[in-house]
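RECORD TYPE: inverse folding
INPUT: structure tokens
STRUCTURE:
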């Protein structure tokens, strides 16, 4: 369904630093990192491996804090680690992300995991017994304390 852009997914995340723009679109090629198979990385079209795929991430600033920015992020493609990879590429890794953050990255006090939360999902369900074809469902998960 991602191929046809039929799934809508939104996330909330806290990133390091102050985002320069209040909103933006990150459109790159992403593939597995050569030096670390656990990670994905951004490639330019000139040096991209054949496995690289288009990745599109939209973001908008929700709130600014000292040293951090709270974002709402919507992915238009569904690549592995897409949000984490894209925000690290912009030099604003997700707070608490041990894999994609930089050496000596600060972590907010009390944060014990990466601050990336799947907040919203909208999907068209396939037809099956007892359910009409094309039923659209929305799921919302508020940010926990």
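DESIGNED SEQUENCE:
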């Amino acid at each position: 369904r991602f191929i046809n852009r039929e799934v809508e997914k939104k996330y909330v995340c806290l990133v390091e630093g102050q985002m320069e723009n209040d909103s933006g679109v990150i459109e790159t090629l992403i593939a597995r990192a050569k030096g670390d198979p656990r990670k994905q990385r951004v490639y330019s079209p000139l040096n991209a491996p054949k496995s690289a795929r288009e990745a599109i991430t939209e973001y908008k600033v929700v709130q600014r804090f000292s040293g951090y920015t709270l974002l709402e992020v919507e992915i238009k493609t569904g690549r592995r680690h897409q949000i984490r990879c894209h925000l690290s590429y912009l030099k604003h890794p997700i707070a608490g992300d041990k894999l994609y953050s930089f050496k000596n990255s600060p972590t907010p006090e009390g944060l014990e995991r990466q601050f990336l939360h799947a907040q919203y999902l909208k999907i068209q369900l396939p037809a099956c017994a007892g359910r009409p074809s094309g039923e659209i469902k929305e799921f919302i998960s508020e940010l926990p304390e």
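NOTES: The longest strand covers residues 53-65.
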